[in-house]
Amino acid sequence: MNIPDYSQSPPIDQVGVEERVARLNSRSIKKESKIKALEMALSMVDLTTLEGMDTAGKVIQLCQKAKRPHPYQPDLPTVAAVCVYPRLVSVAEKALRGTSIHVASVATAFPSGMAPLEVKLEETRQAIEDGADEVDMVISRGEFLEGNYNYVFDEIAAVKEIVGKAHLKVILETGELQTYGNIRKASDLAMHAGADFIKTSTGKVKPAATQPVTLVMLEAIRDYYYRTGHMVGMKPAGGIRKAKQAIQYLVLVNETLGGNWLHPDYFRFGASSLTNDLLLQIVKQKTGVYQSLDYFSND
Predict the structure, then answer these.
(1) What's the CA gap between 4 and 54, in Å, rounded?
(2) Name one GO molecular function term (predicted).
């Protein structure tokens, strides 16, 4: 399959990107807007468990938290999705049946991507058959760094063909791509290959999500939208633990893409540990008092 020449992706001004992030982080937000932003961020979380010791019981517990994040605040929004390994998709699907919460699954030999294509496709097919609404795939970073862009493009396109109407989130693993320029090229490639979302990281490699990296990816989404009229979503994942950080990311999205992207259909946080701090800050804004962390499960 012939793809665009990614050597033509625009050069990235590292200093300019980092200065813009610093300026946006200086914005102040009033209390009423802060509560709305915190609740919006909560609605955009993908609660995730991706450990070798994951069990059906752990996934069921996570799904209960997804449906009711705070035990004494029933009016709060639910999270966007629960993300699990393919083997546990059927457990999450059953636990979330009848809700609007999506079932997401990592696939394609997550997190390394080091498997033959036929294995990656079979894993993706099984996740969809078991009830996944969304698939988070990893690209083959080694192939990308060697300049084999057609290989990476065709791999994403093949996974998208199996995913079909479900959402495909393409994980770039930006911590391994070395430069902002590579991150921009990988973002452009993934979107042209069929990504519904582009995602920074697996959460298994450091650095994971950073605001400058996210800004580079948001600008790629903006430019792709201007060329095609097609909205692609964004998911920073890994290392976002505090509500203040989440609000800073929402400001980045609003300033770069506009309010249409401030919706779970187009922006997600891959940061389960963020949930409890969002809940703490929401209750603090509403009552003036911080609750004990004992009120929340450590999912």
Answers:
(1) 40
(2) deoxyribose-phosphate aldolase activity
